[in-house]
Amino acid sequence: DRLLPETEHAVMSLHDAFASNEESKSLLGILSTNCVQRGDGSSDGVVCLSASRFNHSCLPNCEKSWDEDRGELSVFAAREVRAHEELLVHYVDVQASMVERQQALEPYGFSCQCAACVASEFGASEARRRRLHDLVPMVSHVAVNNPE
What we know:
The N and C termini lie far apart (about 45 Å). The protein has helices spanning about 5-10, 25-35, 100-105, 115-120, 125-145, and strands at about 35, 45, 55, 60-65, 70-75, 90. The protein is of the alpha+beta class. The radius of gyration is 18 Å and the shape is globular. The strands form three sheets. The chain has a two-stranded antiparallel sheet.
């Protein structure tokens, strides 16, 4: 099965973080750059043309959610969004340290310049992220063992 020409054009117009220029773009590079995991723990992924246009922030104002029953990715506001404010999602684990986040973004070909990454005094923020990173598994464990 082949994509419709307009869909193929739309896919090929997506960013390829592995290409050095437009002429060296490849389908594999585009898929690797734009693929979204189909739910937690899934090894399957999808390319969503509209969702692939969202930029990254370590302080995103939106969250992605895959609905397996509908076969659909939704993007929701994670906080109040001001008029004309860019909608941003995270590409990497935002609970990781700034160094780890920057390393995880290397394959995308950019260095994050959000407020969490360029703050002159991010020590307290980093400590909160580490604490959150440590607490999430504990909270998940409690929720599984005590579903009430």
